[in-house]
Amino acid sequence: MTTSSIPSKNNASEQAVNGVFILVDASQFAVVWRVLEYRFRRLQWLSLCEDPAEAPTGPLLIHVGHDQTRTLAWFLEHTQGIHCMSWIVAPLGLIELREHFRSLMQVRAHDGSECGVRFYDTRVLPAWYQTLSQEQEAYALGPVNSWTYMDREGMPCTIFGRGETEVPSSQTLQLSEEQEATLLNAALPDIVLQQLEQSGNPDLEAMPQSERYRFIANQIAKAKRQYGILSVDELAMFCSLALGIGQDFDMLEPVAQVLQQYADVPASLDRTSLQC
Questions:
Q1: Tens-of-pLDDT digits for all 276 residues of the chain?
Q2: In Å, how far are 16, 44, 257, 259 from 251, measured between CA atoms?
Q3: Is 85 exposed, middle or buried (0-12, 13-18, 19+ CB in 10 A)?
Q4: Which end of the chain has fewer CB atoms within 10 angstroms, the N or the C?
Q5: 64 phi and psi, to 5 degrees?
């Protein structure tokens, strides 16, 4: 199946009602299309994307029924460590659940603008869930019995919903300024980590995969708290130095002096003149 020929749904999708659903981020697991075409041809699925052109790299919802434990096990095995899959138990049909999840893909910021939320990425899912108010949680998880994902350590985590059989009226969640900040802060380590990985940082490549996120998250927290470093590029540089020199590199006297000068300069001013 070529990218251009990927449909937004398969022919049997309208018949799926109740059971277990797999939510897959195709941007991280592109092979899913060949899997659905050749290995699991009978599975019923729908893309969450409204624009068919976005379907090849967007999220899709797969109905696996009540008894297809081997199918779920296959997806768990082959998506291990990719952060692209979660599974949901819900009392809805495939179309109903797809429409509900579609309503969650866009949120309204405190300034009135709309932006996307990648809750189908399991690195984002727990942070997104934790930012929801009680009313927002009731809406988002109302028609869900349970929503399970694998955390960064490969352990299963389950979010429990209300299991309501009626789909709530579609709405766009409104985020407060505090909720926006929480989501952005939660995403920063992954953003910096991705930038360092894409740049081919040799010190990062030498670090075990399981240790990278925690190391980067700790360095970012220190850079923000002690030195007021906020931009992604500056945080990436701070983390790069920590990787190359050591996690306490900022305690070295020459470095500490420069970082203190840096901390004393407001972020709104030009800091580029500060040199080691």
A1: 444 345 556 644 444 456 899 999 999 999 999 999 999 999 999 999 999 899 999 999 999 976 678 899 999 999 998 999 999 999 999 999 999 999 999 999 989 999 999 999 999 999 999 999 999 999 999 999 999 999 988 899 999 999 998 889 999 999 999 999 999 889 999 999 999 999 999 999 999 988 999 999 999 999 999 998 988 999 999 999 999 999 999 999 888 888 877 666 655 444 443 343
A2: 59, 57, 9, 10
A3: buried
A4: C
A5: -115, 5
34's CB contacts (< 8 A; 6+ apart) are: 1
Cα separation, 37 vs 82, whole angstroms: 21
Contact 85, 25 (CB under 8 A): yes
Q: Give the predicted TM-score (pTM) of the model.
A: 0.82
**What letter represents residue 274's amino acid?**
L
Q: Which two tokens stand for residue 200?
A: 């081919």
- The length of the chain is 276
124 touches 116 (CB < 8 A): no
* Residue 171 identity: Q
Residue environment code for 106-129, b if the CB has 16+ CB neighbours within 10 A, otherwise e: ebeeeeeeeeebbbbbbbbbbbbb
Kindly give the pairing relationship between strand 85-93 and strand 44-47: unpaired
Question: What is residue 173's three-state secondary structure?
Answer: strand
Evaluate the CA torsion angle 86, 195, 174, 128 in order and state its sign. Answer: positive
